[in-house]
Design a protein that fits this description.
The complex is a heterodimer of chains A (294) and B (254). Chain A has 294 residues and is an alpha/beta fold. Chain A has seven helices and 16 strands. Chain A has two domains: 150 residues, HUPs (Rossmann fold), CATH 3.40.50.620; 119 residues, Rossmann fold. Chain A has a seven-stranded parallel sheet with strand order 5-9-4-1-2-3-10, with helices on both faces. Chain B has one domain: HUPs (Rossmann fold, 3-Layer(aba) Sandwich), CATH 3.40.50.620. Helix content of chain B is 27%, strand content 31%. The N and C termini of chain B lie far apart (60 Å). The chains are: A alpha/beta (294), B alpha/beta (254). Chains A and B meet through helix 3, strand 5, strand 7, strand 8 and strand 11 of A and helix 3, helix 4, strand 9, strand 10 and strand 11 of B. Chain A: Heterodimer of an alpha and a beta subunit.
């Protein structure tokens, strides 16, 4: 069994290569620019010439694909790699299964209707293409050689022109990496009140995210802080929902928390049926008291 | 310029019922336009208004997508014409099959320069139809697009990726997948809805689209997720000592 890994970031290169190792005896990693050592049998690096977007590396990736002839292709779920892997799959008569949360015996588990359902599916083609959500292979240990090779860039038939590129300012928080996550919901009456949630986060060492209305109708949070359907799907040790009603669209994102808590002034809020410990109380009243006790 | 916007019509997730054996029943759900395709329609309509381009919406799906309210909904949003394949032979298509059906309709529409897709469909959110379609048409594609400017035989787009922002020029014809941020869907007025009923609609059957490839993905099961087992202990802050008990439980988990 041969596995090919497409990854842009080093953490994904490590995790997907480690996961590939559990599925295949030969692991090849393809990444941009800098090789990642000790995770695969063979690391292939692609450097895209100036003036091209990285998607123009499609033909180069395809050449490695044809060289390796993999049985399975594990892909980091980034926009660029969804394009590159998707177009290679199309050429092979296959289709990429995206954002798998689990992968066993070729069967990928992913969300349906943003979490209303869970879907299991497998490739009906000889080769499986799957993009894998972070954390899916968290327990697998990567191993490999330092063998790295740079392949020559293959010019695409229709090259694109990169006019400008800049790094986005680093996200202030990385909720996917946080062990403790607090979500603020509509129960927060004013932006100033979020200070209470921030104090609480500081006390318990948590990162602060939010439900959808707080990124859309209010501009209190960046879009990246939205937890739930078509936003972040998290896997924290501890989750605390404050002023969160418990709508499915949000809870899907935190359902995998080991222990979960909720604070809401309505003792009938649906969230209390979906957490381990609930506290019925007004944020303005109870949060200062809780913060004082922590 | 001729712009085609790809639209998925699917069951309204608000109407999906979880059955006793945890399966999903969408039989009572009314057809709706997939949420983020509304942003794609708006982006197409705005670009057309800006450039004088003609716009066609293209839909492929089971017979249930042929719904007069849905058709009017699409056509009331600044779109000139609709091409729709509604045939149960087109039910449950995977991304590859969907792209094949859409590619056949794009080719038959003739003279399409730019295809616009939404960020992802409400059901699978696989973000693969745009790339499969681009490959089927042999056109370049880009996703995550937040702004489009038409040039001479080109489009220049701004796009936002996970950690970067880019400006890229693509030669036409091309396929773009637009981020929901690109445009807020309009609320159609009564006049728009009435006018929508008079716009041209071309209906296709599956047979008009060439032979559909076999499924590339086999779906094994779709079920409602098992709810996580939770303790569901509720404390009332108005009762003496219960806030302290909640804090104690929280401290225990840290």
């Amino acid at each position: 069994m041969k596995a090919l890994v497409f990854a842009e970031s080093e953490p994904a290169a490590r995790e997907l290569s480690a996961g590939a190792r559990t599925l295949a005896d030969e692991v090849t990693l393809v990444t941009f620019d800098d090789p990642v050592a000790g995770v695969a049998d063979r690391v292939v690096t692609v450097t895209v010439p100036e003036g091209h977007p990285k998607e123009d590396a499609l033909e180069t990736f395809y050449q490695v694909y044809q060289d390796v002839q993999p049985d399975i292709v594990l892909v980091e779920p980034t926009r660029r790699l969804k394009t590159i892997a998707g177009r290679i799959a199309a050429r092979e008569g296959a289709s990429v299964i995206t954002d798998a949360m689990a992968l066993a015996d070729g069967v990928a588990t992913s969300m349906y209707f943003g979490g209303v359902g869970v879907r299991t599916a497998k490739a009906a083609t000889p080769v499986t293409f799957v993009t894998v959500a972070p954390g899916t292979f968290a327990d697998a240990e990567p191993s490999g050689t330092d063998a790295a090779e740079a392949v020559a860039f293959v010019e695409p038939a229709v090259p694109l022109t990169l006019v400008a590129r800049e790094d986005l300012p680093p996200a202030e928080v990385d909720l996917t990496a946080a062990e403790r996550v607090v979500a603020a919901g509509r129960g927060f009456a004013a932006e100033e009140q979020l200070g209470l949630a921030r104090d609480f986060c500081q006390k318990i060492g948590a990162e602060l995210g939010c439900t959808r209305p707080l990124t859309e109708s209010e501009t209190w949070f960046p879009r990246e802080a939205y937890i739930g359907v078509s936003g972040l799907i998290l896997n924290p040790e501890v989750y605390v929902g404050i002023g969160v009603s418990g709508q499915m669209q949000h809870m899907v994102g935190v359902d995998r928390a080991k222990v979960s808590f909720a604070i809401n002034k309505d003792k009938n809020a649906p969230i209390f049926q979906q957490v381990d410990y609930g506290l019925a109380g007004d944020i303005a009243d109870v949060l200062p008291k809780i913060n004082a006790e922590l | 310029m001729n712009i085609a916007v790809m639209v998925k019509v699917l069951p309204d997730d608000q109407d999906i019922v979880v059955t006793a054996d945890r399966k999903l029943d969408a039989s009572k759900a009314k057809p709706v336009v997939s949420t983020y395709d509304l942003n794609a329609i708006e982006a197409a309509a705005l670009l057309a208004a800006d450039t004088g381009a003609a716009t066609t919406a293209i839909v492929a799906g089971p017979a249930s997508v042929d719904d007069s309210k849905t058709k009017k909904n699409i056509l009331s949003r600044g779109i000139d014409a609709l091409a729709m394949a509604a045939d149960d032979a087109l039910a449950d298509m995977d991304a590859r099959q969907t792209a094949q059906a859409l590619a056949a309709m794009v080719n038959q529409a003739d003279g399409i320069d730019l295809v616009i897709c939404g960020d992802g469909s409400a059901d699978l959110y696989a973000q693969q139809v745009d790339v499969q379609l681009a490959e089927a048409l042999g056109w370049p594609s880009l996703n995550g697009v937040t702004a489009i400017t038409a040039g001479d035989g080109t489009v220049t787009v701004e796009r936002v990726l996970e950690n970067e922002r880019e400006t890229v020029t693509l030669p036409l014809p091309a396929v773009l997948s637009v981020s929901p941020d690109i445009a807020v869907p309009r609320i159609a007025g009564m006049k728009d809805i009435l006018a929508a009923g008079k716009k041209p609609v071309t209906m296709y059957a599956a047979g008009d689209l060439g032979e559909l490839a076999p499924a590339a993905v086999e779906v094994i099961d779709v079920s409602a997720p098992e709810p996580a087992a939770r303790k569901k202990e509720l404390f009332d802050a108005a009762q003496d000592g219960e806030l302290d008990a909640f804090v104690a439980a929280l401290k225990g988990a840290l």
